[in-house]
Structures are given as C-alpha cells and as structure tokens.
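Incident log entry.

Two folding requests arrived from the same account within the same minute. Monitoring flagged them as a possible duplicate submission, but the sequences differ. Recording both here for audit purposes.

Request one:
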Amino acid sequence: MNVIVLGSTGSIGTQTLDCVEKIGASVSAMCAGTKVDLFERQIRKFMPKAVAMSDEKAAETLKNRISDLDIPVFSGEDGVLRLFDEVPCDVCVNGIVGVAGLRPTLAAAKKGLRIALANKESLVVAGEIIKQACAENGAEIIPVDSEHSAIFQCLNGICPTEADVKTIPKKIRRLILTASGGAFYGKTLNELETVKASAALLHPTWKMGPKITVDCATLMNKGFEIIEAARLFDVDEKDVDVVIHRESIIHSMIEFTDSSTIAQLSYPDMRIAIQYAITYPERIPSPVEPLDFFKLSALTFAQPDYKTFRAPLLCREVLRAGGNSGAIINAANEVAVSAFLNDEITFSQITDFSEKMLDKYPIKKNVSIDELLQTDAQIRKEKIK
C-alpha cells in the first residue's frame, strides 16, 4: 500500500507516519510547510519517491540538505499538487491545516484515491464540489476527525455493505457529535474578554496544533464539524446535535429512529481514526491501549453554552445558506485565529469577525473552486479592527 502524507510535520502527519510505520505501508510522497529540520528527518527515515514544501524558501533549503538523496523536491502549491502525478498512491492522508488543504483534496478526488481526510475545511468550503469529484472518479472519503470517524465506524458496524449504507439516512434520527468544550468550558463572556492565547492552547484532552486548539476553545471547530457531518453523511443540519463530553472517551454517537443509540469509544488518540481510514475495512492492532472501564471514574454530558460560544450557530447558518458562505466563515476564522495567537485581538473578537464577514459578503450559489478561493482571498484583506 502506497500512502501520500500531506502535512507530515503537523500533529496528524506525525501520527500518520507512526501508524504507517507500524502497519508496514510505504510512504510514496510527503509534503510540509516550513519545518525543514523535522521534514528532513522524516524523509531520511521513510525515503519517499518525491516530496514538496509549500514554502518555496524552505524547499530550496531542503534541496541542499538532501542533495545526497535521489528524491525530487517540489515547491509551492503547484509542487504539492504535482506529487499526485509523480508517485504511485493508494491512500492520501490530508493533514494540511486550513483552506490550503482544499486543492490537494480535490486533486486526490480526481485521481480516484481513498482520501483519509483530516482537513475539514475541504468540506466546509467546497463540500459539494469535493463530493461530486469523488463520485465522478471513484474516490472515497474516510474521515479522520475523531467525531466523524466514530460515526463512520458505527455505520460500518451495522451496515457493512455499500447498498445498506445508502439507506441509512432514512433510519437515523440524529447524529450526536461530542465536544470536549475546549480550554474555556464554563467561562462567562466577561471572563473571556481577558483570556490569552497561551490559555486557549491548554486543551483538556487532545494534543493538537495551535489553530485547531483555538478553534476548539471557540467551538468553531465543532461548528465546522456540524457542516462536515451533514455533508459527509447526507443528513439535514437539524439532524446533527452536539453534546459536551469533557472526558473525550465517547467520540460521537448515532441515534436511530427506534431510539437506539450506538457510540464509538476509545481513549483520545487520533491514531485509531488515522489507522482505520488507511486500513478500512480491515481492523488491525493499533498502538493505542484498550479502554480500562474500571479506571473511568465517570462519563459526563452537558449542553453547549451557545450564548457564550455562538460559533456553532453561525456554522448552522452556513449550512443552510450554502454557496460561498463556507469560504467566508473559514477565511474569517483563519484570519481572526492568527490575529489572536499574535495577541492582536481578544478571544471574543474571533467569532465577532466571522459573524461580521458573513453579514458583509453576499451569498453566491453554484460557485467554482476558483470563485471560492477568490472569496477566501478577499476576506484575508479585511482588517479586524
């Protein structure tokens, strides 16, 4: 099995390489952004047939460093996309953060690959286009987000054939996404006015990159997951619910029309979802320890506080609106999170800016990828203050 790992130096990428090594798959290509030192170590260990770095200066540095290896180094967005034409591939693991992962997802879909998708922005910004490309080219998306992987695993467990899976939406009452609540669960609006980025990065259960960790703190990540779930599993927005589950043991649930609920449980470790996406439909031993139910003191649940953390409500508006609205909210959020991490704005301004951009920009239907990326570029020119 040949695997392309996109975003190999990030949290998903490093865990993917750990899984690939343990299951004995081959890394045919990798890409990274700017982390030359780590990327070089990965290249020398896994010896892919080609690599790319989105940062052109970093790519030049890398070329000099691995000049002793017969491995081509491509650069920029076009260089990342070129990997799909240069190497054999069965599975593409997309761990790129943000809208930068959109074109690679589309490229993998057009190649008819299995896409182990951790880049939720692909479906938030261009879900209809991505799914159409998959259908036309025989590609498949296996979700890597723990919540969507949980739903996928539950569906696969009760409906193992494709024919059965297509009838599932008629049997589902709702999908229930669990949420840790992030670093600021229980905080009031007044308390959030003074919180700093360093505090937002203290996630209670998961170890992730800074951007997605802040998204968890605002609950924007959960809002994006509502969009992703509705588009992945062909259900209405109103049929996707969220419950706060601080322990992150139950990763998501499905409630059926007969009031039966099925859940997927494990310790919070992304390697289970990553490995399952690569090896599906097979299950093989993973490096994650099994649950010890005698050590679990409690599993708790609570309703989200949408008055304080209203990002998921904005994302529900995006689902209903469609068109370019996903590109608007995603770009606005990326801009605002970056500003917050640089101590340029307050925590509450992250969601405020996203809402402002949704109000400012007109919704356009039936948009192309280029039009979506044009919207993205326009938003990035906006000033928050």
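Request two (distinct sequence, not a duplicate):
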Amino acid sequence: MNWYPWLTKPYEQFIDKYQKGFHHNVILIQTNKNLGDNFLIWQLSCWLMCQKSNGFKTCKICNDCLLMKNNAHPFLYKMELNQQNNHFLGIDAIRIITEKLYKFGKEDNTKIIWLPNITQLTVNAVNALLKILEEPPINCWFFLTLYNSGTILSTLRSRCMILRLLPPDENNALLWLKKKLSMTNNVYCLLYV
C-alpha cells in the first residue's frame, strides 16, 4: 500500500487529538478522489485496532495488528457497493451493520465502520445511520468519505468531525513525483542491464 507524504499530517493530527482526549467517533473525510483517503482510513483503522500502539505507530505483532495485516479483522466493516445495487447502499446495508455491532461485538473490542462514499447511501439509509450515530456503540468508530462534488444532509454533517484531505502543494507533489520517477527508472535500468 502506497503512503503519500501529504497523508502524514492528517494522520498525526487525528492521533494527537485522540491521545489528548479530544476525539470524535464519527470522522468525515472530505477530499477529492484518488488523494489517498483509503490509505489514510486504513492506517487510522490499524492504529485504532492496535492493542499496543506507541506514539503514531502500531506494534505490528498484537492479534489485532496481525488480523488487519491479513485483511481479516472481524470488527472492520467496510460498506461497499456490489454490482447489483444500482450504485446505492440502502437501509438493509445499515441494518446488517447495526446487527453486527450490537449482537456480535464485545463492548471492549474496537469496531470500525467504513463508508467509502457517503453519497451512495439512500435517504432511508442515511436516516438509519443517523439513529446509530445518536448513540453509537462503545468503542465504535465511523469513517465516512465525501468527495468534494458530493453533498450530505446537514444533520449528518453536524454529527461528524470534519477532516479535510487537501491536494499537496505543487512543490511537494513535484518532489514526490520526481522521487517515484527516479525509483522507477532505477528499477527499469536494473532489469535491462
């Protein structure tokens, strides 16, 4: 998984707030597509799940870290569309997640619900989600993504901590691209020498 340098600041800001006790369990990441929001949410999820995190790093050896590494953690629920849903997640998807949260998860386990594109929820699904967000289960985190062209209900936005993931400035983007290009050229040269 690629880590983009512009993800470091929001990653560290979130963890710093969490460690100081200023945390919100519903995080709305507002961004453009393909800026690394999936990488950011994945790393934050790994950090929240880790039993022995140290500073900004995960331990990589606890049971939760190993489950995350193998993409097999039973309490990470990523809600994605399948081909038959006409591009929307309905109320049934929220009901399934609700059932998993309240019936199958122990209270002391961290649980993460990840909605990669909040605009894909139907109105009924948003209303069902709002009910969960009024009194979320203990140790439950919601990561929602809103791409800049999308809009959401103000009642949903009001329940979220907004984390804006902005494009990198031109100089940092060019430096990163040059580094990637030189690494690619070095590999290319090694292959054909």
